C-alpha cells in the first residue's frame, strides 16, 4: 500500500515539474527576403542578367518561328511530291 502511495506521489511530482514542449516555425524565405543585403544583391543580379534573359527569349522566339516555317515548308514539299506521283 505504501509503495502504491509513494509511486502516485512520485508520479504527481514529476508531472507537475515537467515543462511543456514548445514547437516553433520560422519562415526562412520571409526572413531572407526581408534582409537588406539580400535585396541589394538580388537587385544587382537581376540587373546583370536581365539583358541575357531577354536575348535568350528572343532566340527562343526566333527558333520557334523557324521551326514553324520548317514544318509548313516540309508539308508543302510532301504535297508537291504526292502531286508529282499522281500525274502520269
What is the general shape? elongated
Question: What portion of residues is helical?
Answer: over 70%
Mean pLDDT: 79
Tally of helical segments: 3
Output the structural class.
mainly alpha
Task: Give the low-pLDDT segments.
Answer: none
Compressed to H and E, one letter per element, the order equals HHH
Beta-strand percent range: under 5%
Description:
With 88 residues, the protein is mainly alpha-helical. The chain has three helices and no strands. It has helices at 2-17, 28-33, 36-86. The radius of gyration is 37 Å and the shape is elongated.
Q: How are the SSEs placed, and which strands pair?
A:
Elements: H1 2-17, H2 28-33, H3 36-86
Could you name the key traits of this structure?
88 residues, mainly alpha, 83% helix, elongated
What's this entry about, in short?
The protein has 88 residues and is mostly helical. The protein contains 3 helices and no strands. It starts with a helix and ends with a helix.
